[in-house]
Predict the structure.
Amino acid sequence: MKNRYFPFFFLVLILFTGPLVYMFAQSSESFVAEGEHYSVTSTVSETFSADVLEFMEAFYGLYRSYMHFDPTERKTSMRVQIFGKKSEFDAYLRDVLGESRDSFVFLQYQDPKKSRLVGYRGESEEQLWKSLIHHGYVQYIKTFIPGPPLWMQKGFAVYFENCRYDWDRGEVVFRPNYGWVQSLRDKLDRDPSISDRELFIPVEQLLTIDQAGALDNLGAFYSQSWALIHFLLHSEQKSYNRLLWDSISALSPQAEQDENERRIISRAFEWVNKEQLLEDFLAHVDGIQTFPDLVQGGINAYEDQSYQEAVELFQRALELRNNHYVPEYYLGLIAYQRGDYSKAEYHYLEAVDHDGMTDLLYYALGVNAYADERRDESLYYLQQALEFKGDYGQQAQELIARIEKERAGSEDS
């Protein structure tokens, strides 16, 4: 059996002896929320614990839609413990492990009732939910398969972590995570053959990698594990989709990690043409369209006056990052070119809301309102553009002067 190390980057601790130290700081009150699959305890508030429970139950559905584990095989509720302060988290882990960690920790025991995901609220709500998605998946897979391969643990965890929860609709919104694409492409530009072991982990090693091996080349491990999952899920060749499902089906809850790795190789990857797989994998990575790819493609289409193509590209970009102002700005320009001034104003205002408060956007709003013969609104927007004292101030001032001159002429007549 391989030696396993458990650095905080992947921390899933298997504790075979000693009782679980289950305590909060003496000055903290705990709040418990119980659900169908989870039991959440926090030192924050009753509402917070209920929110975390709702969030985790929703993502349980997402995880299960991919892994298809039988829920009746779960022997107990999955426990999540969130501290309101990092100091509480540190004190708890020092009691359990003798040291603290910077990231969330899944403490795994032979007795499933003692296992739990432990984290802290911190200052960033966004980071809290992202951490719960990532580490929640590790908790999920290890609840059903105590010894899964590391590439499957982290590959899926990274694949899911850009998803969001729509609190109003009560459902998970899937959003692709392309955070590792550019890094992977940069390495492929340097070594298209994926033979440089300083840049890449060989596929056969990735399938059986342990914690120490992953830590030796952390960037390659994360990017390649994510990319392998993405490729197997989204390849247009059904044989690769089947390869992933066969890998998941090969997992055994009774097997340790190295045995599950051997099971996957013998039942799935052993029969694959490795050279063809590599060629198809590279083509897949090259074909992924990230947010910058889609935005640049949209800009190019706009400049070519291929407006419908541009609209489609910008809308796809917003599916990846719905809080960025650039796609909205260009959608506004396209609507303006088409004479749909109401839609143009909508997109420009969306761009402003997405941290795009600039003289350019307010100038665009002023021009749009002027074209729609809404002079008062045009003046309002143009005055806003002047306040930013940017490159479009002169043009805004010229349009203001034009409107005032038109009004004066109208009054004289």
Strands lie at 12-15, 31-34, 38-42, 78-83, 105-109, 116-120, 164-166, 171-173. The chain has 18 helices and eight strands.
